[in-house]
Design brief:
Elements (H helix, E strand, L loop, with lengths): L1 E4 L16 E4 L21 E6 L3 E4 L3 E9 L7 E9 L8 E9 L13 E2 L5 H8 L1 E9 L5 E2 L4 E5 L7 E9 L5 E5 L2 E7 L5 E2 L1 E7 L7 E2 L6 E7 L1 H4 L6 E9 L4 E10 L2 E9 L9 E10 L4 E8 L8 E2 L9 E8 L7 E6 L1 H7 L4 H6 L10 H10 L5 H20 L5 H10 L5 E3 L3 E2 L46 H15 L8
Parallel strand pairs: 11-15, 16-26
Antiparallel strand pairs: 1-2, 3-14, 4-13, 5-8, 5-12, 6-10, 6-11, 6-14, 7-9, 7-12, 16-25, 17-24, 18-23, 19-22, 19-25, 20-21, 20-23, 26-27, 27-28
């Protein structure tokens, strides 16, 4: 919606409107499908968990992202959260734009500051490690949102082992007039009952876990697609079918399109989500009424499309809003006994090949190899363990990532080099289910984006590697709704499949 207004009313009903002084645009859902918010809870409430920001004072910036680590109370017995309520401070109601709450792994680093609000993002070096350990979304509110009721047969479990652990709350303040000095204590509140419902609610996370330089989006592009597999190797461990009743998208400011594709064997079913106008500043939950059945062995393919047409530098993966992410968070029941983090972890060796990192520099890296290991295998083994070993994190951050970034920052991005790295994010150069190499039944053809009109499409490959990739304002000619570049990519992958080759060589 595009708007224009004057904040002052005309002096009389018959008076002429005054000249408009305030102009802008906003994303608004005028019509929304039936929501699980219609499932009114009837159980008695025995406890509340409040995740609020803690009297943060706005500093006057037009946009602020503020976080806080909130310690959970003791739970002497298992309880079910049956409703999540927005708690919007009336003092700052006009500035609170969206609220996200994540659960955190236990224990947090000893250096984590839990005393009060702090600036979100990796630029806050003191809190970056703690924030990276809080990744499972358990609550979301955006402007105009209502209380969110779980399905009547399921509740979000708060168990004894959650006692003393932490939530991370992220607040987005939109303050176009730069007002400051106002105190805010908004957040989310969870109503808990001891009348347990039949099922526990679980969260299934899919997407790309590489929130580091291995997640690379070249600059000056109208659209760049990345793909992640939630493999049948992961979902086969589900003891029973599950019912998915909602999904949240998580990208940052350059995210434009998000699709959650559903496969059963080689058959593609209706997508879980197909948001072609994603807006970071207006995030909502897509609810399914009735819920969708997901069987053990089904797969989810997550596709994220980004734009960097106003960027002259590479955008890397990271927690900071200036970086990017690609995740879908599904809410389902009954909850699986194992953590459902069904993600794609692209290998550092495949990435080095995709960006043309010099072999001489690879051999010069100070990597400790096991007997019979190659340098590539040793790098991939270390990279897999980065989330569990501080020394490995430090080695990657100090020895590997700076060299990779120095190389990629110096690339003159052409149609060929962009295509090569985009194809890397659709290849089998990844591992899943923690550290299991995956061989998907087939590489899915690109989704038909012919009705996606927000900006032009990238020009097809000209065969000339010296032609830079530039944004275009006109949409290129399509054949049956598919661009010539898409035809080329599909032909390439289907040719490989016809030869019985699973690995894509870059």
């Amino acid at each position: 919606m595009i708007y224009s207004y004057n904040p002052n009313d005309p002096p009389t009903k018959e008076g002429r409107p005054q000249k408009h002084t305030e102009r802008g645009s906003a994303a608004i859902n005028f019509l929304q499908p039936p929501s699980k918010s219609d499932n009114q809870a009837t159980e008695p409430i025995v406890q509340w968990v409040n995740a609020t920001i803690g009297d943060y004072i706005l500093n006057g910036d037009k946009t602020e992202y503020i976080c806080r680590l909130i310690k959970l109370p003791n739970f002497p017995q298992k309880l079910h959260a049956i409703t999540t309520y927005p708690v919007i401070d009336p003092r700052t109601e006009e500035f609170v734009h969206h609220i996200v709450v994540f659960t955190c792994m236990n224990p947090l680093p000893a250096t984590a500051d839990t005393s009060g609000p702090f600036e979100c993002g990796e630029k806050n070096n003191g809190q970056a490690k703690a924030m990276s350990m809080c990744s499972t979304m358990v609550g979301l509110w955006t402007v105009g949102g209502q209380p969110s009721h779980y399905p009547p047969e399921a509740g979000l479990p708060f168990t004894q082992d959650l006692s003393g652990t932490y939530f991370l709350i992220q607040m987005h303040y939109n303050n176009p007039l730069g007002k400051k000095g106002l105190s805010d204590n908004s957040g989310l509140a969870y109503s808990l009952t001891d009348k347990l419902r039949k099922y526990d609610v679980g969260t299934l996370a899919t997407g790309i876990v590489n929130v580091d330089p291995i997640f690379t989006i070249p600059p000056n592009l109208d659209e760049f697609r990345m793909t992640a597999q939630c493999s049948d190797k992961c979902t086969s461990s589900l003891p029973t079918p599950i019912n998915i009743f909602g999904v949240n998208i998580h990208m940052h400011t350059r995210g434009r399109v998000a699709v959650g594709r559903h496969f059963r064997g080689n058959k593609e079913l209706e997508p879980f989500v197909n948001n072609r106008n994603y807006d970071f500043n207006y995030q909502t939950t897509a609810d399914f009424t009735p819920s969708r059945t997901f069987l053990p062995g089904d797969r989810i393919v997550t596709e994220c499309t980004f734009t960097t047409k106003t960027d002259d530098k590479i955008i890397y993966g990271g927690e900071n809003t200036d970086n990017e992410m690609c995740f879908l968070f599904f809410y389902y029941y009954p909850k699986s006994p194992r953590q459902m983090f069904c993600i794609t972890d692209y290998t550092v060796s495949g990435y080095m090949q995709a960006v043309g990192f010099p072999y001489s520099k690879i051999m010069a890296l100070k990597v400790e190899k096991k007997e019979s290991e190659t340098v590539f295998q040793a790098l991939d083994r270390l990279y897999e363990k980065r989330h569990r070993d501080v020394k490995i994190q430090q080695f990657l951050s100090e020895e590997i990532f700076p060299q990779l970034q120095a190389h990629t920052d110096g690339i003159n991005w052409t149609a060929s080099s962009v295509r090569k790295i985009e194809d890397f994010y659709r290849s089998s150069h990844y591992k899943t289910c923690g550290s299991t190499p995956d061989s998907p039944p087939f590489i899915e053809p690109l989704t038909d984006w012919s009705d996606y009109q927000c900006g032009g499409l990238r020009p097809p490959n000209t065969g000339d590697d010296d032609v830079p990739v530039l944004p275009t304002t006109s949409q290129q000619q399509t054949t049956n709704g598919v661009t010539p570049r898409d035809h080329a990519a599909q032909s390439f992958f289907f040719a490989l499949l016809g030869l019985g080759i699973c690995q894509v060589f870059l």
